[in-house]
Structure formats: C-alpha cells, structure tokens
Amino acid sequence: MDTSRQTAYRQNLKGLIIDVAMQCFYSNGIRNVKMDDIAKKLQISKRTLYELYANKEELLLAGLKRDESAFEAQLQLFADKKAHNAMEVVMKFFQMQMKRLATINPCFFMDLHKYGNVVAYLETIHAERNIRSIKFFQAGIKEDIFLKNLDYELISKLCDEMIRGAMEKEIYRVYGLQHIFQNIITVFVRGFATKKGLEVVDKYLESGNLNGSLF
C-alpha cells in the first residue's frame, strides 16, 4: 500500500473508531466501555487501536471535538439565515440540545469529570460560548426579542448552575434529562423574552415536537 493510500486508510479508520466509540460512550457511559470493547466491535486488533489513540481519554477528546464542531456548524448554518431572529436561534439551540440528550446515558456526563484534558476542553468551549451568547443577547435586545436591563451573563450562569445541580443531585433518575432541561429553559427563556419573543417561544412549545424540525 502506497503512502497516500495508507494515510487515507488510517484517517478513515480513525473516523470509524470515533463513530463506534462515541456511540458506546453515549449509550453506556464512559467508564463502562473499555478500549478492548471498541476494538472487538470494529474487529481490529488492540495494537491498531492504541497506535491511533493512545488511551480512552484521547479517543473521548477527539470524539467530543468532532461532535461539538458539528453541533456548532449546524447551529451557525441556521443562525446565518436572515429570516431567523435571535429567539428562533435560541430555541433551535435548545431543541438541538434536547435531541442530543435523548441519545445520551446520564452516566456519560457523570463520568466526564474523571478526564482532566476533557474537562479543560469543555470549560474552554463553554467560556467561548458564553462570550458569544452575551453578544447574541445584545443583538436580540436590538431586535426587541429580549428584555432590556437584565444581566444576561448572570442569567447564563444561573441556568448553568441549575443544570449542574440537577446532575449532581441525580434527579435525572426520576425525571429524565430531557424533561429537566425543557422545564429549566422554558422558565428562563420566557423570563427574559419580550412580547415579540414570547410569540416565538409559544410557537415552539405548542408544537410539542422537541426532536423535530423547528422553522
């Protein structure tokens, strides 16, 4: 096999490994999935797997980076359409999050904190997202979608703390992640929406289609 074909093969294999690994991590939690399990599912040797990904954390980090990049690209594509106002983008974001939560075992989130490099990466993208969200809220105020004179940085932090608290108290075992997330964002979003913004929120909530296409 020539060098170019070998490189292409390795890249394709790396992508396939990420596909299988993330599916396993999301379904079963991270701790419950061994590198051996992934190798067996792919019918490749452990040596081949470890040549491409030195350990589970490296593989997990690669998978999260890929999935977060795809998530952001999809949201940006929606936001770039001029027909969509700021509230529609907010609701699209929450809808995408709930669709994602429907496929993830809560154990996945509980296991994440055990991987330092992963935690550092998630903290970085979370901080970057918060910076973008403040600018976004400012744009929404100009559109008369969001209320003026509110501290949106504080609101974002409070929402984060409520979600974090729900995870730490493990109340998702009773209510489910989607149900918790829906109730939290409904209260928060309606709280900072203008009359114009509420029309968008109500349209979304009345549709009752959390996993479907919005707008």
From TrEMBL:
Transmembrane domains' residue ranges: none
Record organism: Prevotella illustrans
Taxonomic lineage from the root: Bacteria, Pseudomonadati, Bacteroidota, Bacteroidia, Bacteroidales
Record domain HTH tetR-type: where: 11-71
Protein name as annotated: TetR/AcrR family transcriptional regulator
Highest rank taxon of the organism: Bacteria
DNA-binding region(s), residue ranges: 34-53
Keyword Transcription assigned: yes
Keyword line: DNA-binding, Repressor, Transcription, Transcription regulation
Pfam families: TetR_N
Coiled coil: none
